[in-house]
Structures are given as C-alpha cells and as structure tokens.
C-alpha cells in the first residue's frame, strides 16, 4: 500500500526513477513536454545495467492540470525550469503530501516550501549516471543511489519521519538504493564539493574529468575550489570533515573519464544549472559574510559562456 | 651621434621599432630566426598609419655570435623564449651598454640583470598595435608609445640617467613617442591592470574585449581582477590610484573591438606568455604574503589550456 507518484520532468533522471517505481507496482503519473506523443503511445524503454525493461503503457500528461493529485510529487525538471514551479506544484500535490526535490544545487527545497507551504518537502541527492538516448528511451549507465533528507525551515537538522521512511521503502522496493540523512544541508554541500569544480571547469576548459585530474594546475584548482565549498558549508554551520576532499579527488581519479552533466547540457546548447549549483551557494555564503572568490570567478565565466552559447554569436 | 642597436627578436614589435630607428639613420642589427632568408635578401617592409616605408637592406643575423657588440640590445623576443637569454645576451651587449627590455610582464629586468650584471637594464612598456603579416612585412595598426624606466636592484625608484635620456632621444628622433618614469615597477603593475584580465579572459572565454565588456558578469570579473592587480602592486609597496580602474574600464569600452595578443598567440597555437604576465606577479605577491585568488584561477586555467593547445588532444 505505497504512495502515488507524479514525475514532474520525464528526462533521463525522472524517467528512470518513475519507470522503476511503476515496474515495482506503484501508480506513477508522468509529465512530459517534447516526448509526450511518443511516450503516450509507446511508453518508456529503460536500458539498464541492472536489466533492460519496457513499460508499454504509462500515464502520460502534457499539462499538470490534467494530472491527479499525488502523495509524492517528484521534482525532476532541470532547475533552469524552476520559474515554472508556482504553476506546476500546487495543483498536483495532495494536502498532506510530499514534494521530493531530485534536483542539483542549493536552496531549492526552501523555494519549493514557499510555494506549497502545507506539504512536506524532502530533498533527494541522486548519484545516477543515465542519459536519454531517444524520446522515451533511457540508458541507465551506472549507479542510482539517492540520499534522502527532510527539509525543515532554514535547513535545521531533522529527525527521520514516517513520510520519508515510506518513500525510502517504496524506492527500495523498486530496486533503488536509499540512504537517509538528518542533515540535508550538509548532504547538499558535500555534493557541491564535487559538482562545483568538475561541472564548472569541464565547461570552461572543454575538458573531461580525467584531463582536469592529469594536469597539475587544474588538479590544484579543483582542490582549491573544493576547499572554498567547504568554507561555504562552514559559513552555514556545517563541517565537512578534513578527509572528504582527498577522498573525492581519489574517487574522481579512479572514475571512468567522464563528461559532466553540465558539459553535456553545454554541448547540446541547453541552459546550464548555474544558479542552483553556483549562484545559490555563493549568495548564501555571501549573506553570511563569506566570499568565495574562485567559485565567483567560475560563476561569472559560466554566465558569460551560457549566454553566448544560446545566443547568436556576433563574431 | 646616437647609439648602435641590436634587435633580439624581429617580430612585429622588434621589427617595427628597429626599422623606425634604421630609417632615422641609426645603425641597427637584427636577429632573426624563421624570416632570416627573406629579410637578409629583401629587407623589411613597414605598412604604417604614420606612412609606409621599405628598408631594402638591413643587417640580418641568424646567430647572435655573428652580431657586433652594440650599445643598446633591445629584447623583443616573446618571454616564452627567455630561457635562451644566457646564450643570447652576453656576447652582443657592450661593456657599459644597455639591455632594453621591451617585453610584457613582471620581473624580466631582474632576470636580465642577473645574466649581464655589468650593464644597465632599462624596461620599456610598449603601447603598440602591430602584426607581422608576412616574413619581414609588418603592419603597424595604431599607437606605438613607450614608457621607459631604469631598472635598479629590487625595482627601487631611480633617477633619470644619461643613458635613458640618450635612448629616449634616439627613439624620439625615429618618431616614437617616449615617456620616462622613475618607477618602473609601478609602470609594470599598471600595465598588468589591463593585461591580466583581458589577455586571460580572451583566451579562456574565446572572447574579444567588447564581448567581455558587454556582459555584466565578465565586466564585474574584469573589474575584480583589476582590483587584485592593485592589491598585488600594493604588496610591493606601489599604490595605483583609485581612479585608475574606472579609467581603464572606460578606455577599453571605447576601444575598437580587440583580439588580445595572448588570444592571437593561442589561435596560432604559439606558447602563451603566462609566466611573465601571470606567474611572476602571483609569485611576487605570494612571497610578500598576499594571495590573489582570482588571478590564480586564471593562471591555472591558462596553464591547462596552453598545454592542451600545443599537445595532441587525447579526445
């Protein structure tokens, strides 16, 4: 007797987790935009290292107004679409329901809580490598674990309530590894330790992770950016332990050469998630009196490149 | 009864100033590498906004050992060739002569003074827009003024001696505008206020000066980098006045859209003058306890891009 789910944004990530839930027997409703025709007629295909499967029929919607209210609304749009949230969220989430934010970056849960103030907001940090290779066709390459944490006002540390436990159970029943945290803010900052240097530099320097690690100068820059993220976390009262940075560097060194999600967005000329990943952490730390100069430098460089990438070049 | 001149590095800059001096009647000896055959047979051509001229015969050399000792040795190589200075300088400069450093960046005069300790070293900051459009064929686009300052140990403030006056007179006779300074170090830092942001960002962001100025984010980044250069100057005891930064920004806004010299080098896959323009100022400030984090970020990004630009890409 699990929850009903709405997937707002059926890209690689939303499509993957939604499909896994439906396959496990849960009722799932998918919001789509460009892939609506394909998916409403032919369903979803998931090619996965854990086993391929097809869902010939899914509940597909083009407009959020047509969707039934659900227990759990999964926010899996890119954050660059978050200006749409006031139109999307209120009509689809049940009173006493949950919005589960499966997006990157900092501060999104607080934005969501302002829009739907009478529901619980839960943040989820996804460690997933998946691509959409065609409309309704997802390739799950590796990983898939989610860290779940409840949002409470100003990102205070929380307990582990019934709702988050129920969601964790549903996802685990669907074969997705779940970890629970009482400190969502710390988890968000820790993910930024990786995302800020690698997403940023991969776009600015047109480089894969292995290239950034092989060069002594960018290695040093990555490391220093990580220390700035730790300083940002500290400004909000969260201590990332000393050994976390060498662990992240070591982990990246051992990874398969990797094109980051921001680099893929850039190469496809899609808008970059600069505000969620860079802007919000910078403004948060700044409001607490802490400047992060090298992250600021990357932020400004990315804003320029993103704008130029999506507008006609005048050269 | 002027000086005799050796031009070490007959590119656009060395070729232009050397040709102007010879045209005015001075004895000039030119060191060449790739253009030797062309220039030794056909001389130099200068197309200039101040009037075109040709020198059908010039004293051209392939090896510094064949050159006569001169009163003034003009160092007009790219700084990326400065590892050659111990082989080049000692045999060509007269005892009691002068080495005139017409290179970009910080700290070169001190390096030269270590190699030829019994001659005077003078620094020259060139505000010249010129390109070599073919072997021995120089296009002088605009400007040409030089600020001259004597180097003394540790860049102390100096007087204006006879030698620098003589050189200034020779250049002025050749139609080159000269300004004299008693504070070479301050002049060098002031030039870096422009060179560091625009040379660096033009390469990293593939952008002209006008694009960097039109975008609010890179405008802010340029401005902040300028403040870091001012902080670097201050670490060495030099105060760049408050109104210098708005003046530089305004000046750049009014410039013709401009591809910086470092961007031209990058596009031609030539080595970039990163150490002279970024590395030396950073190390100087660092040794005095001052970190310049955003300049460091640019330095590390440029080191990566320069390496990748000149080596086989492994993607």
Walk me through the structure.
The structure is a homodimer of 315-residue chains. Chain A has 315 residues and is α/β, with parallel strands linked by helices. Chain A has two domains: 5-182, NAD(P)-binding Rossmann-like Domain (Rossmann fold); 186-309, N-(1-d-carboxylethyl)-l-norvaline Dehydrogenase, domain 2. Chain A contains twelve helices and ten strands. In chain A, strands 1, 2, 3, 4, 5, 6, 7, 8, 9 and 10 form a ten-stranded mixed beta sheet that branches. In chain A, α6 (184-204) packs antiparallel against α8 (216-235), α8 crosses α11 (274-287) and α11 packs antiparallel against α12. Chain A starts with a strand and ends in a 6-residue tail after the last helix. Chain A binds chain B through residues 201, 204-205, 207-208, 211-212, 215, 217-218, 220-221, 224, 293-294, 296-301, 303-305, 307-308, 314-315, and chain B through 201, 204-205, 207-208, 211-212, 215, 217-218, 220-221, 224, 293-294, 296-301, 303-305, 307-308, 314-315.
